[in-house]
Design a protein that fits this description.
Chain lengths: 184, 251, 315
């Protein structure tokens, strides 16, 4: 419990993936700072589920994810150290340049001996890199997930907070009425 | 419903609502001042939830007696408030706030669980709904207390101090209201002693595992909800300031 | 990007990507100046959200009814959330949240000057929602188009959430403007104090805005300060006068030729005074942030110590 010399930090960064409804793909919605994965789940809920809808959250240490843009791939000089034990990886892509509030979305799973190996397989399996602007490779071992028992306590209450919806305020009618009466 | 039962139930609902509104007030004071941005957001969430729970209990009270929630909250004097003293206390440090929250959350979760079986159906329905987010509260506050208890020497010292101070205040949660036995007999409310035992069964081992020592006393700080600390009057003065500037106005 | 290219060729390719409407993502090549401008803008924007929690947060405990209290807590909570999104967008450019907070707490970083004005009555909460958030939304709607992916995405999320902030404020102002004499006086007083500082939120005139040209060229901004300010003035003057509120500007008039409402001169001396740290609340805001940070130091340390406990590292 030595406190001397410890640097004050904002805690490590965890990437947050949200599945809005059952069966829908997970999407990257942002990140939270947290000292450990259990707190990261609670922080992810706090930060990203103030409004509906959410079915499942994943948090993953930022440092555990291999992230590559298509521009970086074109310039790839990475060493292939394909000597690890086979592991499962979740593959995410960004495939659109449209305005959006989410970044990469989930496309599938790969078994591979390293993240780089998983990425090469993913490129073969899930489309050419020209259609994909960004790839993320997330090792299963690094994922902490909510489960179905959490839905009621973590995500369902957001539906009752109707004061967060713009439709809870009738400003349009109020202004129209005011304009109408001031014109008379 | 018999008049006596109705009167007793109204007192109980008022007690529950007043506890929640004051806890919401204290939690909301952290907004913008928490140790890290993620917790500013978390405490504001707790404050909304506690405020929402208060509104649920005031709402049931309104159905029962016709009393208006905003009148009760903003135009009642401190002597008429019916809360426990624990929720009046200033926030202190982060350890104090989270320890209070933990002790309160576990009791509330157990009470709500029991109330889902209440013979008074509106109360049972409301309890089932409120209980959902209370499970999250317990998860959040227990995660914090455990970490603070086991974190550093300083966090342990602060958390222990908070527990020692708060313990007799927390025990007031289980002092039955004078009107309560009739409600317990008609299965509208759970028995306070049983609730206290359930609570002790949860918090004692948990606090022990967090490296904390629970004080020996089982004496609550007060036995009547009409006794208040010196902190309630200034709290209410602040809370009611704007509403009382123009009492007839719609805000 | 091909590393054998010259800087000029890289820059040309980068600008071509922006011209095609592509988003620049973390990891992509970008000019150092683009990165510098984004870190400056996004961190200032994040600080503004976090400091912006203070003037409104001060009224949560005094909100005059349960509904307004609930709405205000959730609004200030959103502002914390927006700060959180924005710090993360800046982090993706290679600066840490620690570094950004250090700059804020040391008084080196800027944030929106509007939050250095005091909130003096309850109606300020409504006026901040309608005017201040309304001005902010103009800017944010534009920034949702920004060429940098993380900034754009944060802005899309923020805009979606801000709509209710704006509407709850508008609802309050309209209601109080038609309410009791006490409420009418309160809301007019509030408009009188916030009108000019809100117009200053759009920043200096285009002729005095040194960063504007490069920000527009690289698709970070798509409209100038004066364009956004004029749009805002035109909308607000119409709505505020409809509910019988007056604006503290004797020179305000409608210009038939341009179809614009024209205001009197903005007091830029006041603007620069507040920007440079001499506004009514600069010291108070900074002190509040510093105090929260210092009081939280042992908490942050405790959480890290717990995470590093041997039995957890093993697991």
């Amino acid at each position: 419990m030595n406190e001397i010399g410890r640097r004050d930090t904002q805690w490590p960064l965890y990437e947050v993936f949200m599945q809005e409804k059952a069966e829908r793909p997970f999407q990257s919605v942002g990140a939270v700072h947290a000292a450990d994965a259990e707190m990261a789940i609670l922080n992810a809920r706090t930060v990203f589920v103030r409004r509906p809808a959410c079915h499942t959250l994943w948090v993953v240490p930022h440092s555990a994810i291999l992230m590559r843009t298509s521009e970086e791939l074109a310039d790839d000089e990475e060493d292939d150290a394909d000597t690890g034990e086979p592991q499962r990886y979740q593959i995410f892509q960004k495939t659109s340049q449209r305005r959006a509030m989410v970044y990469v979305g989930h496309v599938g799973e790969i078994t591979a001996v390293s993240p780089q190996h998983a990425l090469r397989q993913a490129i073969d399996t899930f489309g050419s890199s020209e259609d994909v602007f960004v790839w993320w490779v997330v090792p299963n071992a690094a994922i902490t997930s909510t489960d179905d028992d959490d839905i009621d306590s973590l995500f369902a209450p957001a539906y009752d907070k109707i004061y967060r919806q713009p439709s809870a305020y009738r400003t349009f009618t109020a202004i129209r009425k005011a304009k109408h009466s001031s014109n008379q | 419903m018999e008049l006596q039962t109705k009167h007793a139930l109204a007192a109980q609902l008022l007690a529950m609502a007043d506890d929640e509104i004051l806890l919401a007030h204290r939690d909301s004071e952290w907004t913008g001042h928490a140790p890290i941005l993620e917790e500013d957001i978390a405490l504001a969430n707790l404050a909304q939830d506690e405020l929402g729970h208060a509104s649920v209990w005031y709402g049931l009270l309104h159905e029962l007696t016709g009393e208006d929630a905003n009148q009760l909250v903003f135009f009642r004097d401190p002597t008429a408030y019916y809360n426990i003293q624990m929720v009046e206390l200033p926030n202190g440090d982060w350890a104090f706030t989270l320890m209070r929250q933990y002790l309160f959350d576990v009791a509330e979760m157990l009470r709500l669980t029991a109330l889902t079986e209440s013979n008074y159906q509106p109360l049972a329905n409301a309890a089932a709904k409120v209980r959902r987010e209370e499970l999250y509260h317990v998860r959040h506050s227990s995660a914090w207390v455990r970490r603070l208890g086991l974190g550093t020497d300083e966090s342990h010292r602060r958390t222990q101090k908070a527990l020692t101070t708060l313990w007799p205040f927390a025990l007031q949660m289980f002092v039955p209201l004078p009107e309560e036995p009739a409600l317990v007999a008609s299965h509208i409310l759970p028995d306070a002693d049983q609730l206290k035992q359930q609570w002790l069964d949860v918090v004692l081992p948990f606090l022990h595992q967090a490296g904390l020592q629970v004080p020996d006393t089982l004496e609550p700080i007060a036995t009547s909800r009409q006794q208040h600390s010196k902190y309630l009057a200034p709290l209410l003065q602040e809370m009611q300031e704007v509403a009382r500037q123009d009492p007839g106005a719609e805000w | 990007m091909d590393k054998t290219l010259t800087h000029e060729e890289q820059l040309a390719e980068f600008e071509a990507r922006i011209a095609r409407g592509e988003k620049i993502e973390p990891g992509d090549w970008m000019p150092a100046e683009y990165r510098r401008q984004l870190i400056r803008m996004i961190s200032q924007h994040a600080h503004s959200e976090v400091v912006g929690m203070l003037p409104e947060g001060a009224w949560i405990t005094r909100a005059p009814n349960l509904r307004r209290k609930m709405v205000l807590i959730s609004k200030v909570q959103d502002e914390g959330g927006h700060g959180q999104y924005l710090y993360h967008a800046a982090e993706s450019l290679g600066i840490s949240r620690e570094e950004m907070l250090d700059a804020l707490l040391a008084g080196r970083a800027k944030y929106s000057s509007i939050f250095n004005y005091p909130t003096l009555n309850w109606a300020d909460i409504g006026v901040i929602g309608w005017l201040v958030d309304g001005a902010a939304i103009k800017n944010q709607t534009m920034l949702a188009q920004a060429s940098y992916g993380p900034y754009s995405r944060a802005m899309v999320r923020i805009c979606a959430e801000e709509t209710f902030h704006h509407k709850q404020g508008k609802e309050m102002v309209i209601q109080y403007a038609q309410g009791t004499p006490f409420q009418r006086q309160m809301v007019q007083d509030s408009i009188n104090r916030w009108w000019w500082p809100t117009l200053m939120m759009f920043g200096p005139h285009d002729s005095d805005s040194p960063n504007s040209a490069v920000l527009i060229k690289w698709g970070i901004k798509t409209k100038t300060n004066d364009e956004l300010r004029q749009e805002f003035i035109n909308e607000m003057v119409t709505d505020l006068t409809a509910v019988n509120l007056t604006l503290p500007d004797p020179d305000l008039h409608f210009d038939e030729a341009s179809g614009n409402w024209i205001t009197g001169p903005i007091d830029w001396d006041e603007f620069w005074r507040v920007v440079k740290g001499d506004g009514p609340c600069n010291a108070e805001r900074l002190a509040a942030r510093q105090e929260a940070h210092e009081n939280g130091r042992w908490v942050r340390a405790a959480m890290e110590a717990f995470a590093a406990r041997p039995e957890r590292v093993m697991a």
